[in-house]
Specification:
It is a single chain. Among the domains are: 229 residues, Aminohydrolase, N-terminal nucleophile (Ntn) domain (Glutamine Phosphoribosylpyrophosphate, subunit 1, domain 1); 53 residues, no CATH class. It has a 6-stranded antiparallel β-sheet with strand order 2-3-1-9-8-12. α16 crosses α17. It contains 24 helices and 21 strands. By secondary structure, it is an alpha+beta fold.
């Protein structure tokens, strides 16, 4: 995995950055690519690359890469960040067409495919990627982000230049681009804890390419001409029931194949394992293709105060140990305590240049750093199952109740926004300063954004029912979780891969009937048990099964639980949702004083909100987490 950056100017003009300045932009991404660095300049374009060598790690895979190979002036140049999981099939197709390939690197495959089929090659590509392809003769730049948004890419238009990079801090290393707060997004972050919504970021003038979109920057004229369009939009979903056994078998076949493809690597690979159903399924499937799988869990040490809570942080580690023992993996743990959490939280905001989204980012970075220390460079993770197979019981039940009682007074998009709010819109009068309240206009941007997202979700899914609400989870929540995984792992120079967030798995999941994914009422199924396992008891362990069948009591991700009932411990099949939980509300106090010393916070928030957070962050955790994050972020850019 890698970091990309570049500056292209309008034809006849040179980019407004020297090689040294471009190197500074590039090397702001060094943690994304510690194994190599490249720079290519020609007339009005300069492209840069930082490399994390995973496939064909030799010098032939160095970037930026030119096409045709060896040409005095190339026709195309690419800076690519990603992994192509159908590389072998695409290479065969290209070779049959007479294309000569000289490496085993998927960068060359992507470059050759684009040179052969143009942007039509995107429909053939299965993988995670963000890249920029420069057409030297036509002065056009193609910037693309993968369908589900696993890999990020940002851009800004400055005067007669187009600037892009894998991270916003790289763009802000451009000598003429400064950090300016996008206040409607600042307010949106308080409610959603999302640092990116669609194309919008926390920085004024800096945008994200949305998942499944491509951008053309035509630099052939006097000013940049930008065109953004969607090339992938998912699949329709049936609302009714389906044959559970057939659906489970089909899903398992597709997911097992995805895991096999995601294991392709020329460097050591492992799996993140929380002990929940998603990561356990991925580890179980991966174990079939590796001699000795290594698994890693992160969490806090058990706290006596939550000994009776089966979702407590210590129990997360215990569930992961149970699954690792069942699968026979070589298992390790990264323990997060209050001191580490406080130190790494502030450090991560400083390094990334953005607030964190969820507190779990600290735990994910901790486990990524641990596995990297052990020599692993690639890790598989379970992101995607909840958003495509209806894994969140509370939100799904709330959506079902909303649909049943919908009287037309609230837009479904507004329901989705308000039902998951950290800081509700009705709370903003007491939280934001008067100046900021006037600027954000009662969160009109945020409300409109969620309206549009629901309408797009309804159009994609083919219904305005429960499937449309689930589709919003994929479009908004999954995009945020994939961003969380990318930033947390890449900060440790680790490539995070997500077999659930794969175009073919997405097709399999989204075309399944809703009835096999989520069941609104009480539910229990009996399925054969071909394993040692049992049901969860106090403390999070698993008892030994005493019958040839087990009961699946969960109403969420039902088809996934059926598909892998013979492969993971029974306690995992019925375990409530938990993901690297850490008791962050007890650990925020060390940073609470920043809310008083930050000039940005003093300007953005009311005096009452500041004093409430500074005085008792644990009690006001829903305010404290986003407000302290914004204060730490502001100190990075404005002191």
């Amino acid at each position: 995995m890698c970091g990309i950056a570049g500056v292209v100017a309008c034809a006849g003009r040179a980019p407004g950055v020297s090689d040294g300045q471009m190197v500074a932009m590039r090397d702001a991404l060094e943690r994304r690519g510690p194994d190599g660095a490249g720079l290519w300049r020609h007339h009005n374009a300069v492209l840069a690359h930082r490399r994390l060598a995973v496939i064909d790690p030799g010098p032939d895979g160095a970037q930026p890469m030119c096409w045709p190979h060896g040409a005095t002036t190339p026709k195309y140049v690419i800076s690519y960040n990603g992994e192509l999981y159908n590389d072998a099939e695409l290479r065969r197709d290209l070779i049959r067409r007479g294309v000569k390939l000289r490496t085993q690197c998927d960068t060359e495959t992507v470059l050759a495919a684009l040179a052969t089929w143009g942007s039509g090659a995107l429909a053939r590509m299965r993988g995670m990627f963000a890249f920029a392809l420069w057409d030297v003769e036509r002065h056009r730049l193609l910037v693309v982000r993968d369908p589900l948004g696993i890999k990020p890419v940002y851009y800004a238009v400055h005067k007669d230049e187009f600037v892009f990079a894998s991270e916003i801090r790289s763009i802000l290393a451009h000598p003429e681009i400064s950090a300016r707060a996008n206040m409607p997004m600042v307010s949106a972050y308080l409610t959603t804890i999302r640092t990116v919504l669609g194309e919008h970021t926390l920085f004024e003038g800096i945008k994200a390419v949305p998942p499944g979109h491509l951008l053309w920057a035509d630099m052939s004229g006097e000013a940049p001409r930008i065109e953004v369009s969607q090339y992938w939009c998912g699949h329709a979903t049936m609302e009714g029931e389906g044959d559970m056994d057939a659906c489970a078998a089909s899903l398992r076949a597709t997911l097992d194949e995805s895991v096999r493809r995601h294991l392709r690597s020329d460097v050591p690979t492992c799996c993140l394992l929380s002990g929940g159903i998603d990561s356990s399924v991925i580890a179980s499937a991966a174990q079939q293709h590796t001699d000795q799988l290594r698994t890693y869990a992160a969490g806090a040490a058990p706290d006596p105060d939550d000994a009776g809570d089966p979702l407590g942080a210590g129990h997360d580690l215990e569930f992961a140990r149970t699954v690792a023992q069942h699968l026979g993996t070589e298992h390790s743990e990264a323990i997060v305590d209050g001191g580490m959490f406080a130190d790494r939280w502030g450090w991560m905001v400083d390094q990334l240049g953005t607030p964190l989204s969820t507190p779990n980012e600290v735990a994910i970075h901790a486990v990524a750093a641990r596995l990297r220390e052990d020599g692993c460079v690639v890790t598989l993770s379970g992101e995607g199952a909840d958003e495509m197979l209806a894994g969140y019981e509370g939100p799904m039940d709330s959506a079902a109740a909303f649909i049943a009682n919908d009287d037309g007074t609230m837009h479904p998009g507004h329901f989705q926004l308000l039902s998951a709010a950290w800081v509700g819109i009705d709370m903003k009068n007491g939280v934001l300063s008067e100046r900021v309240r006037a600027t954000v206009d009662n969160d009109s941007f945020l409300m409109s954004f969620y309206e549009r997202e629901f309408e797009q979700s309804a159009a994609e899914s083919g219904t305005r029912g429960i499937a449309a609400h689930l589709r919003m989870h994929r479009r908004i929540n999954l995009t945020g979780l994939l961003q969380r995984l990318d930033t947390s792992t890449m900060l440790a120079s680790v490539e995070g891969r997500t077999p659930f967030a794969d175009v073919e798995v997405a097709r399999a999941c989204e075309t399944l009937p809703m009835g096999v994914k989520y069941r609104p009422g009480a539910h229990a199924d009996e399925v054969p048990a071909h394993l040692e396992g049992g049901s969860a008891h106090g403390g999070g362990g698993c008892a030994v099964a005493t019958t040839s069948a087990v009961r699946i009591n969960s109403r969420t991700k039902v088809v996934l639980r059926h598909a892998y009932a013979d492969s993971v411990p029974v306690c995992t099949l019925n375990r409530p949702k938990a993901s690297f939980p850490v008791p962050f509300s007890r650990w925020m106090g060390e940073h609470s004083s920043v809310i008083r010393s930050s000039q940005f916070a003093q300007s953005a928030f009311s005096a009452d909100a500041i004093e409430a957070v500074a005085g008792d962050p644990g009690r006001h955790w829903n305010l404290a987490w986003p407000m302290i994050n914004l204060a730490l972020w502001s100190k990075k850019w404005w002191g």
